[in-house]
Design a protein that fits this description.
By secondary structure, the protein is an alpha/beta fold. It has a single domain, classed as 4-Layer Sandwich (Metallo-beta-lactamase, Chain A), CATH 3.60.15. The protein contains 8 helices and 12 strands. It has helices spanning 3-39, 82-91, 109-112, 115-122, 133-138, 223-236, 252-257, 270-291; strands at 46-49, 52-54, 63-67, 70-74, 99-103, 125-129, 157-159, 164-167, 170-176, 185-193, 196-202, 241-243. A 7-stranded mixed sheet has the order 1-2-3-4-5-6-7, with helices on one face. A hairpin with a 2-residue loop joins strand 8 (164-167) and strand 9. Helix 6 (223-236) runs antiparallel to helix 8 (270-291). The longest helix is centred in the N-terminal third of the chain and has 37 residues, at 3-39. The radius of gyration is 22 Å and the shape is globular. It starts with a helix and ends with a helix. 39% of the residues are buried.
Amino acid sequence: MNRNSFGKLLKSIILVSLCFAFSSASLAQNASQSSDAEWNQPFKPFRIIGNIYYVGTNDLACYLIVTPKGHILLDTGYAESGQIIRANIAALGFKLKDIKIILSSHAHYDHVGGHAEMKKDTGAQVYASAGDTPVLESGGTKSFFPLTSFKPVKVDRILQDGGEVKLGDTILVAHLTPGHTEGNTTWTTAVSENNKSYRVVFVGSMSINPGVHMVNFPAWPKIADVYARSFQILKQLPCDVFLGPHARFFDMETKVKHLSTASSNPFIDPGGYQKYISSFEQAYNEQMKRERGG
């Protein structure tokens, strides 16, 4: 092959490679945009149990915990979810200015993307785990596995494992269950309904992000051990009411349909909580087996 022919061949290879790269990036972007739209549809707000209300989108779960001294907002969805969440809070008869504390399940853009604007609009303080604080304050860039960035937000109080958030007559306890993010947090509280007390678990996300490995993963060498410990923590938490950061995790739409007609509150679902843990732990074990060549 002469020099001119080789040069033409090399240019062709480069062009094909660039086209493939641009095509792959476009497909990934379109898939992400599709998920964003699919998860960010309006959903009618409702009271779940006790003083806990659902104010999120059709899939991005956001919770308003109401107390006589003000309210706690757990997760804010995408930045674009703000309009839905604000409308839902108003529809329930509550005021934004009464939100005193903003919490998070984990520092990914689809759960904390609206933190900065919500903090600005309410004057509330943002509390977060030590692991997720740098991620929140950097807008998602200071993470072992950066995803889509979001508007940075200042954290006012850093919580350790077992840390309590108290407001009015409500206490939320932070249980660190890292893996999905450095500071992935499972929250627990107790509520009363019909003179009975129920233990509520807002479970953290336990899925493994695409592209993250459990074996030989330099970005987080001990991540496999971290996940294993988090599963053990979750299995030991007593749970009556099972909630989570995505509505599909706890089959929200099905439960809502039966909320007004069922003889007991369908969100009282300890079996669903155990199934949730088991399903993600099984996925973790299967990935471990694949990566170890088993």
